[in-house]
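Final paragraph of the annual report: two paired records, presented back to back.
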Amino acid sequence: MAGHLTLAPELDAFRHAFEQIADEGEALAGALTDGQFNWRPQPDAWSAAQCIEHLNVTARVYLPSLDEGIADARQRGLYGEGPFRYNWIGRKFVQSQALPVKRKFKAAQVFTPPPSRPRGEAMAAFRAYQVQFIDRLRQANGLDLSRARVKSPAVTWLRLPLGSGFELMIAHERRHLWQASQVIADPAFPRSGR
């Protein structure tokens, strides 16, 4: 079909992951009431809503870094074909977020979710951010994903390979969807809508 862009294999795998994450998020939260969505197992624990909102906040902060990394790579002519190999720091950051969860991290202030939000609004934003990540994959098509760099919004000195940056977002989103699923699986979770 005209205008159809074939993504490089690694980017296409990332696209599939973001689409799957959007579907998993909807399956997880789609049938919850606002009360269930915002229920917290402990006063200092996140609700399913806060897990999703943390992903929304992270995407809102991280997407401009992806834009800068992609624009910089294009300007510098960092084109290449995969498969790509990523440096140890990129691999380490991805592993730190991967399932199963081995270590908990406190979210940096910039990524702290709001205390509550209606499920419909939070999930609409979540789906929209998955589409925006996929759009960035299309923009990155043809770039050398190991030489192009993306700056971390949380650790300002850190510049990860662009491919690691996409992998990090995928691992991070899967981690917090799992966290939301643990909230919903809690024995005290309200089974009838409130």
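The closing record of the year follows.
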Amino acid sequence: MSIGIQNAVLEGMMSNGANALLEPSFWYAIQTKSRHEKKVHAEICEKGIHSFLPLHREKRRWSDRSQWVELPLFSQYLFVRVPSFGDSRVRVLQTVGVLQFVGEHGRGTPIPDEQIENLHAIVSRGIPAVPHQFLRVGEKVRVRGGALEGIEGILSAIHNDKSLIISVDLIQKSVAIRIDGFEIEPV
């Protein structure tokens, strides 16, 4: 787990009281109403629950101007780190705009830490990423060296550019980052 994510998780646990330190927590995806991701993220953070909303910048054009806007990488989804049972899960579900935990029977399925760590590394390092269709097939690779050191994903080609597809299996969403010039190795 990256130091930034560890610190944020520990801070969240401390704000939830000593009992939270005794309960292991896991990453879960939550589904939100359309265009409610930022509002839900802010409200969940205000409740002292650790939330992660990966964003990307996109230039939008209107008839009179164009402007850069920050949009969720995964429309209608964000991630929370909470124990499997308990008050935190209820407080997440009581948040205006939250539809459900993603997974079996609406209870949620834990997401492997490495998938969230990969997304966090891309976002925190300012690596340009765009939403991409979900891919399950293809060769899994790891980047060697540079700002993307250790990030794993599926190698793909988009418009003749080498790209690395980072996927969150549970919500079947992916992001693509250009990796031309980076050395990669099979996993």
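Residues 1-20 have pLDDT under 50 and may be disordered. This concludes the annual technical report; the extension proposal builds directly on these records.
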